[in-house]
Amino acid sequence: MTTTNDISLERVMDTMAEGLFVLDAACCITLWNVAMRKMTGWRAGEMIGKPCSDLICSPAAGTDASGMKPDLDCALLQHVDGKLAVSQVECMVQTSTDETIPVLKNARVLLDDNETATGVVVTLTDLRPMRRLEQDLAVMRHEAMPVRGLGRLVGGSNPMQNVYARIAPAGDSEVTVLIEGDDIHDPVGDAMRSILDGHIMLSRDLARQHHYPAVDVLGSVSRLRNDIVTSDDIAAGANLMRWLKSLEDNRDLVNIGAYVAGSDPVLDEALAHEGEVREFLTQGVTEGTNLTDTLGRLRELTGVA
Known about the structure:
Radius of gyration: 36 Å
Number of strands: 7
Largest sheet: 5 strands, antiparallel
Oligomer: single chain
Distance between the termini: 95 Å
C-alpha cells in the first residue's frame, strides 16, 4: 500500500531536473524518476525490479565506493573502507533506442540505523546540452577568428595568404612596415600592431593643418620606451601626452568659449603651452634635429628637470 510519504517522495523526485533512481541491497532498481525516463527513454514500469546492470552504464572506474557487501554484483559500487564515493564521474548510458549518451554520475549508499548498507541513490546529469553548448562556443570562436586572426579573409585568397605569411617574420625583423588606408582597425593592421615593437600613427587631419610630420602622438605606441628612455624623459613624455589628451577632449568646449579657466588644472597648463607644444611637434620638411636636443627641449617644455 502506498503511503502519503511515498507519494510525496515520488513527487519530489519527479520534479528534479536530474535523473534519479534508487537501488536496493540486491542492486535492483526500486525508484525511477521522470527525468530518467526523459533521458533514457525507459519508463519506470520497465526498469523497476530490474538489476542496475540492465541500464548498461559504463563503470565508474577509479572512484571510491563502498558500503555494500562485496558479493553484491553492482557496477556502481567498489568496496573501500566502508564508504561510498562516486562523485562527478563521467560515464556513458545506453538509451531505449540504443543511443549512447554522456552523463555525470553521483552515487551514495543508503545506510540504516545500524550503519548497514541497504541500497544506493544514484543521480545522472545529461551532459548533451553542455556538449552542444561547447560545440556552439567552438563555432562562435571559429567565426570570430577572422576579426583578429584573418581566418576566412586569408583562407579565401592566395594573395592574402602571402600577406599574412609575411606578418610574423616582419615582426621579428627590424624593417619598417607601412600600412595605408583610413581604417586603422583593419585585420592586417591589427595583426601587425599586435606583434611589432611599436607603431607610428599618421593623421590626415594633421596633414591638412600643414602639421609636419603629421604624427598622431596619442595614437602612436612604443613597447620599448621604458627599456631605452630615462625616467625623466618618460615623465616629460607623460606630461606632454596628458596635455594633448586634455586639449583633444575639451576642444569643442574651448572653441565655443564655454570653458572657465581654473576648472581643470591640466587643461589650463595645456592651453598655456599649446603654442609651444605645436612648435615642438612640428618642423620644416627640410629641417632636422638630433635626439639629445629634442629630449632636452621636451624636458624644458614640460618642466621636468
